[in-house]
Amino acid sequence: MRKSLHILIGALALGFVGSLPAAHAEENQGFIYGTVETTNGNTYRGILRWGREESFWDDHFNAAKDDMPYRRRDFEDRDDRDDRRRRRIRVFGITVGYDWDRDDGGRHFVARFGDLRKLEMHGGDRLTATMRNGERYELDGGSNDVGAMIRVHDESLGDVKLEWRRIESVTFSAVPQGTPVPARRLHGKLATEDGKTFEGFIQWDLEECLWTDELDGESEDGDLSIEMGRIQTIEKRNRNGAWVTLKDGRRLLLEGTNDVDHSTSGIFVEDQRLGRVRVRWDAFLKVDFEDTARTGRGYDDYKPATPLTGRVTDRDGKSHSGRIVFDLDEAESFEMLEGNDRDLEYVIPFELVRSIEPDGWDASRVTLASGLELELDDTTDVSDDNDGVLVFEGDKETYVAWRDVKRIDFD
Known about the structure:
By secondary structure, the protein is an all-beta fold. It is 3% helix and 46% strand.
C-alpha cells in the first residue's frame, strides 16, 4: 500500500499523531496495552500496535495450534470417508490444506487480544499463549501475527519498534486511567450490495483503523492521501474506484490503489451482534463513518473463557448434554466459529453462538444470541469437513460424527 512520504515514521507505526482532535483519556480503554520484555532483559510498557494492523482488544491474534489433544485416530475410523481425505481451513480468505493422518497439527488458533493474558516467545515461530482463564496453548506460526514487529508507545521513551526475535514475552493489562492517546477509532455503518447492513468499528483494507491512518488513491488532479478522520462516506463506483465524500462536503473520485478498488483486502466490521465480518469489494456498497470517542471494550470487560457446554441432538433423535468439543478442536467460549456467505466472511466467538444446524453437505444454519440467523458455508466448521463433536457427560464420552449431527444447542 502506497503511503505519502511526508508521514513521520513513528506516526505511521502507531498512528498516534495528526491534526485531528484527541480522544479523551477515559475513553481509551479499547486500545491494546501491555508490558514487553526483551531477550536482553529490558522492559517497555504502553499502548501496543501489532504490526501495521491490530490495535484494539477485539482485534484477533492468529496462529497455528501445535497440540491437538482431542484428535484421535479412532474417531476417524468411525467415518467412512477416504482415510487420506484432504482437509481445508479458511480464515478470512486464507485457505490451508493438510492431510488428516499426518500428525503435524494444522488447526488455526484465533483469539481476541482481550482474551489473552500473556504471550511467551521460544525462538522462531514457536510461542505459548496463556489465556485469561489460565489455559495454555502451544503455538507455531500460522499467520503474520507471529513474527510481527510490535510497536510500543512507551510511557517514558515514546514510540519504540521491537523485532519479534528480540522479544521474550508480552504481558497484557488494562490501559491505566489518564493514559493519553491522540487518535480516535474508526466507526461506522456499512451497507452491502444485497441490502445487508453492519454497524461497528471499521478496519479499512484490514489496516486503517484510526482517524490518523490514511486512504490512498489517484484523483483527477494527482495522488492523494487522506486522513480517515476527514472522510464522511466511501461509496463504491465500480471495480476500479470509489467516491469519497469528505466531512466538509467535497466529493472526490479515487482510483488506482488497493484502498479504493477490487484489489483491496476487504473491510472488517466489528459488529456487536456477531463478532467480526470481512466484507469483500464485490459485496461492498457504501460505508458512512460516525464520529465517536469510543474505542471498544476495555481489557477488564473480557471475562475468563469457560468450557463450551450444551446439547447435541443426533439424527436418530438422541440427545447428549454436557461439555462440548466442536470439530474435535474448539472447546472454550473464546474460540471462533468460521463461515462464509458468498463475499462475506464471518468469524464469530462461540460465546455469541446459540445453535448450529447442518444444512446439506456444505452449509449450516447458525443462530446467535442476538437473534440473528446466518446461513454459512464453505469452511470446515460448517460443512462435512467438520470432524464431529465430542460430548463429555460426567465420565461418559460420546462422539457424534458431523453427518449424524442434527442440531447443537449451546448454553
